[in-house]
Specification:
Ubiquitin-like (UB roll), DNA polymerase, domain 1, 6-stranded mixed beta sheet, 5 helices, 6 strands, 33% helix, 19% strand, binds FE2/S2 (inorganic) cluster
Amino acid sequence: MTDSREGRATEEILFTVNGEPKKVRAYPMERLLDVLRLEFGLTGAKEGCGEGECGSCSVFIDGVLVNSCLVPALQAAGTSIVTIEGLADGETLHVLQEAFLECGGAQCGICTPGMILASVHLLNGKPDPTLEEIREGLSGNLCRCTGYSQILEAVAEAARRRSTA
Ligand code: FES
Ligand code: FES
């Protein structure tokens, strides 16, 4: 179904976001990043570069880590999307969120949602990564503040906590 917004065609798009069914009218090429932030108020995903280079806009679509600045909203129709807001369990932070907080892995915070989601992806595949594997796993995510060492430490700490939980 289409209608016209300011003379241009929009589409009704349905998907699940953080476990909740959502419906939005958007231009087919409107970026998923903008729909999440502007239509749903999910401002965790950040726009760093807008070109698929920095990873700060990362979200999961059907379990696949993607840069939402490169995904047209229509392409995500019918999928299940998880953003950083969907990671905590109510008031209980995800182990990676806790570790980033405690290890100083977040400074200005622009890269942090993407770093954490990329770390979730990494630890799902490699529960006990080496430092080199953590570095490699986060190589698509850029940080201008931390010098990366606290981020690497946070991921290693989260892996340790998960293995002893
Ligand atoms: Fe999407 Fe940088 S804002 S990769
Ligand atoms: Fe500022 Fe990473 S904490 S860009």
